[in-house]
Amino acid sequence: MVTSQEISILIPTLNRSGFLERTLRYYDLLKFQGKILIGDSSSGNHASKNLQTVNRYKKNLDLDLIDCPKPEQKAKVDWIGFSGEAIAFKKLLRLVKTEFVVTSGDDDFLIPQSLLECAKALDKTLDYSGFCGARLDFEVSNDLDTGEVSCVKRIPYYAIESDKGVDRWKTYAEHAISPLYSVIRTKDWLEVYEHFDRVSLRYIGSEFLPSALIVIRGKIGVLDRLTIMHQDQANRVLDWNKVSFYSMLIHPKWSQAINNLREIISMELVAKDSIAMDVALDEFDSGFWKHFSGGLNSQYASRYPTNYVEKDSVKFRQILKLCWSKIAKNNNDSNVNLLKSLLTSSHYYHQDFMPVFRLITQANE
User: Fold this and answer.
1) Nearest-CA neighbor of 272 among 204, 198, 215, 196?
2) Secondary structure (3-state) at 221
3) pLDDT of residue 330
4) 128-176: per-residue pLDDT in tens?
5) What is the C-alpha to C-alpha distance for residues 327 and 235, in angstroms, rounded to an integer?
6) Nearest to 105 by CA among 28, 22, 225, 198
7) Rounded distance, CA 128 to CA 163, Å?
8) What are φ and ψ of residue 364, in 5° steps?
């Protein structure tokens, strides 16, 4: 029988001691029985505070703080080479001794009972790689770890349950539905991360590659229960509107890294679906081309909005207005009203939402 003690949560962190303390306080309040591994790339006062925090919560939680020095940063955003978060995750992964694992940011809250239900579902289904649940993103005034919750919105997660690995690859490449918040078998993550160093591109190597391999290997299921609460912050470590995929595309190491990516994913498709290599290569090209060009176009629109709208701006605005009206029609709760409804006891997610809400808004209770 699967228990919470068979689940590990991996949390990379960098100079955010307040957020880490908040996260551990949450798991302490909910009496989480699994393992928590923290990969700390912090320095100075934050590193000292993190050590004190971990020692304090060790009384009730099974947790370890692992030193994960931040890699040398040669540019404002170095697209070649891995971020400290990705390096920390791989280091933590090698220390996991539980059967199941899930990754988390230091500003995330993962609902312990939902994690257990995900692990139980995964344990019963060998053709699945992982399970996750519903996700809510929230904003806090001034982007602090405590304060007024100003907005809550639901982030849609979709199951990837096609029978063929090729079809699951197509779905992932088109929609980039990352399984990073899913409960995954530890051995599967370890195996796909063996390829990590061959694709030394930020995001492409550290998230896209392992996520794609996990999806090709098995289905991703979604349970109808709140599992993830993530704080959306304006001051992100990596702002996609300031740096772009184009930075990778023009880097001299791009070609070799992408050829390695192409080989690794194509070989996984061959192994999973018993298709010819030339067919697998074509499937990779189709999927990755669509994924990457979508990212390029989206980022181009953000950086050069006046160029992207082109001449017929009236028609563009009409289409945009129609899209928003359809979204509003299909969504019973606006972002503002979602917070209000979550605070009522009749809401399906109320019981799991309230411990997080109280922790943020009433820090001294």
Assistant:
1) 215
2) strand
3) 46
4) 999 999 999 999 988 889 999 989 999 988 899 999 999 999 999 998 8
5) 27
6) 22
7) 10
8) -90, 0
